[in-house]
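Sat 14:20. Reprocessing the chain from the morning session after the first attempt stalled halfway. Input below, unchanged.
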Amino acid sequence: MLSIHLHKVIIHAYHGVYAEEKVLGNDFLVDVSVNYHPSKYPVTTIENTIDYVALYDLVKKRMSIATPLLETVASDIALEILAQFSLSVTVNIAIKKLHPPIPAFQGSTGVSLIIHRKDIQ
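Finished this time. Tokens:
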């Protein structure tokens, strides 16, 4: 099994339940790993693997849709990856809100999800 990764992708988006988050937005850090079985070894063409440009485009598109809960965003991205990339077996996604609107809070908040194709069929 191979894995394709997007590491530390920073996207400005408007997720959150508070009014100021919907207006000002926030920076989010997204990590995605997709485990898959290539259609053949050795992998020598893009058709035998998962295109990380297409993977990034999928993540960027979904992150652009304002949503109150990161749990929803993570689930939507993971399920769309499994739907769009037939070779994918497992998706591991983590989304961090880099500057949450919590008074005197230093750090980030976030969610993570691991979903297996066999668990959704």
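The first helix runs from residue 19 to 24.
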